[in-house]
Automatic annotation (TrEMBL):
<protein>
    <recommendedName>
        <fullName>UspA domain-containing protein</fullName>
    </recommendedName>
</protein>
<dbReference type="InterPro" id="IPR006015">
    <property type="entry name" value="Universal_stress_UspA"/>
</dbReference>
<dbReference type="Pfam" id="PF00582">
    <property type="entry name" value="Usp"/>
</dbReference>
<feature type="domain" description="UspA">
    <location>
        <begin position="35"/>
        <end position="112"/>
    </location>
</feature>
<dbReference type="InterPro" id="IPR006016">
    <property type="entry name" value="UspA"/>
</dbReference>
<dbReference type="InterPro" id="IPR014729">
    <property type="entry name" value="Rossmann-like_a/b/a_fold"/>
</dbReference>
């Protein structure tokens, strides 16, 4: 089983110049923070008696990243969560699970969190 979790890393245009070494340091700190969170996520999965691999990837959009990983590992099923956004919010902002459902070449199971 493969587990993925996506983080948004913001790269922005600053109205001022930044020393490339300072910028590189900021990016490295963010990557290290995310790696730490992935390690904690893997520990949580083991505690829940779930076996699998936690994988990190880079993508413009989370849905694209999920589909790229699914293709890479030759997945036969994608299970994804849903945050339960309203129809209006999904219409304007989109939904990762909707994107995956409509673009995946393999079956997709969407799970909603219990209230």
């Amino acid at each position: 089983m493969l587990f993925t979790h996506f983080y948004k890393i913001c790269v922005f245009e600053a109205p001022f110049s930044m020393d490339p070494e300072v910028f590189k340091d900021l990016v490295q700190k963010e990557v290290k923070r995310i790696q730490g969170e992935l390690i904690e996520f893997a520990k949580y999965l083991r505690a829940m008696k779930l076996e699998g691999t936690v994988k990190s990837t880079h993508a413009q959009k989370p849905g694209e990243g999920i589909l790229n990983i699914a293709k890479e590992v030759n997945a036969s099923l994608i299970i994804t969560g849903s945050r339960g956004q309203s129809k209006l919010r999904r219409t304007f902002l989109g939904s990762v699970s909707d994107y995956v459902m409509h673009h995946s070449p393999v079956p997709v199971l969407v799970c909603r969190r219990e209230n």
